[in-house]
Design a protein that fits this description.
Elements: H1 10-16, H2 19-22, H3 26-42, H4 48-65, H5 79-91, H6 104-140, E1 145-150, E2 153-159, H7 160-184, E3 187-188, H8 204-211, E4 215-216, H9 220-225, H10 228-254, E5 262-263, H11 282-305, H12 320-342, E6 345-346, H13 348-355, H14 362-371, H15 376-393, H16 402-408, H17 415-419, H18 422-427, H19 437-462
Parallel strand pairs: 3-4
Antiparallel strand pairs: 1-2, 5-6
């Protein structure tokens, strides 16, 4: 820092220093530095002995940082400078040669890309575990009837297995989004320098292979300034957290005394400090609450990058805290979801009773009229009138007399009462993707194949 004669003002240093959060880059920065050293050795900047000393020194730095009670010094601005200082303590002036052919701009971009790759893969694995649990539950409850809802009002009956698989497919799409983030982060920025590239013809593709990147950046300006891959991860995490919030919200509702559809295991519930009888679904409630936090991280970085001139500005230091917080939050939520689902118990009698409401057969009756030549909109009005008649007279639909049916339509006869048989409501939805037993069996088969593909892809990425 010979350009400056004054030390940083403490007020500036307080907002400039990033070691409090970017210390999490340390293992990635050390791996990157070792690969960079091998690249420098290949072009003769480092001889074999120097490479060996640097590599061994970096391993000692890794070990020191992992020791209990290790603390950074106040002068450590960021993790890169801290590691360089520690390496200097281990091997002396030779440590200064390591920064040949790179800038902190491409160095940090590479570290962050490595973080996104690692945690995109971790999210895929955790989502896969939750998907596996959902599939198990769906198979176990494939023939348990329950009411489906719109506007949180009973609408049409479905099988519980069918309802649970809705969340399976949501997480399946989340896997694809995290895979996109992983692929987006698999382009190595190292070699871009501050913005124009570097003066040393390091074999970037060899270094990329060494670090597990699929490609190298095509343009040095883009390489140093790109944080799209972080936004891709945060976008995927935001959508995934939103899906988990919907699952959490339904479990909160279903586990209430008013519904009584399910009960969480005690290990994922909590009590009350004043009411001894309480068993609260806190784990599910937290799935709801964490979602906006992840979305806020995405919005924060999107705002930081908005209209930022190329290439690097210190603004971009603000990429790490939202990313790290989102990583911790979505991984904790996915892990908790799997555990929560492992111990959940459903009440078949409560589900059956709720799904037996004859009003849920209204659409079936309308379809009966359509099959007899009545336009659907007219049929909709006729059945709406029947529902109103039943409500006003305090009757169920099946308690309406043939005479009362005839007042509404000449097309209603004893078949009306047959339609009200509950099994027909569920088994009539034979369309692909519907809730009938046959359609659900096909869906379960497809879900099994999808889960197998997720596992295989994750294993392939792990290498």
């Amino acid at each position: 820092m010979s350009r400056f004669r004054k030390d940083p003002d403490p007020r500036f240093w307080r907002i400039n220093r990033s070691i409090e959060f970017d210390w999490r880059l340390a293992p990635y920065d050390i791996d990157q530095s070792q690969a960079h050293a091998r690249g420098l050795h290949q072009i003769g900047v480092l001889d074999a002995a120097e490479l060996e000393r640097i590599d061994a020194g970096l391993e000692r730095v890794r070990a020191r940082m992992g020791e209990h009670g290790f603390e950074f010094e106040e002068a450590d601005e960021d993790i890169h400078m801290a590691i360089e200082r520690l390496l200097g303590e281990e091997i002396g002036p030779l440590a200064g040669k390591l920064h040949t052919g790179r800038s902190r701009n491409d160095q940090v971009a590479t570290d962050v890309a490595m973080v996104v790759q690692a945690h995109s893969l971790r999210a895929i694995e955790l989502a896969g575990a939750a998907m596996e649990r959902l599939l198990e539950l769906a198979q176990r409850h494939r023939d348990w009837a329950m009411p489906g809802y719109t506007h949180l009002q009973r609408a049409q009956p479905v099988y519980l297995g069918h309802h649970l698989l809705a969340y399976f497919w949501m997480l399946g799409r989340d896997v694809l989004r995290f895979q996109f983030a992983l692929d987006s982060a698999s382009v190595m920025p190292l070699g871009s320098g501050a913005l124009a590239g570097v003066n040393w013809e390091i074999d970037r593709r060899a270094v990329a292979d060494d670090l597990g990147f699929e490609h190298v950046s095509h343009n040095s300006i883009d390489g140093s300034s790109n944080r799209d891959f972080v936004l891709d991860y945060l976008s995927a995490a935001s959508t995934c957290a939103m899906h988990l919030s919907r699952l959490g919200s339904e479990i909160v509702i279903w586990s209430s005394s008013e519904f009584g559809f399910c009960e969480l295991d005690e290990s994922f519930s909590s009590g009350s400090s004043i009411m001894p009888q309480k068993k609260n679904p806190d784990s599910a409630e937290l799935l709801r609450a964490k979602s906006p936090r992840v979305a806020a991280s995405y919005a924060a970085l999107l705002g930081t990058m908005h209209a930022l001139p190329l290439t690097y500005g210190k603004d971009m230091q603000e990429d790490k805290e939202p990313l790290f917080d989102a990583i911790d939050t979505i991984e904790a939520c996915l892990d908790a979801t799997e555990g929560m689902l492992a111990g959940i118990e459903f009440d078949r009698e409560r589900l059956e009773a709720a799904s037996g409401d004859e009003m849920l057969a209204a659409t079936e009756v309308a379809d009966l009229l359509v099959r007899r030549g009545v336009p659907f909109r007219e049929a909709h009005g006729i059945v709406g009138g029947l529902v109103r008649d039943a409500v006003e007279k305090g009757k169920s639909l099946s308690e309406l007399t043939p005479e009362e049916l005839a007042e509404r339509s000449e097309h209603l006869d004893k078949s009306f009462y047959e339609v009200l048989t509950r099994s027909s409501w569920l088994e009539s939805k034979r369309i692909e993707g519907g809730t009938s037993s046959a359609s659900l069996a096909h869906q379960l088969e497809q879900a099994g194949k999808t889960l197998a593909a997720v596992r295989a892809r994750a294993q392939e990425e792990r290498g």
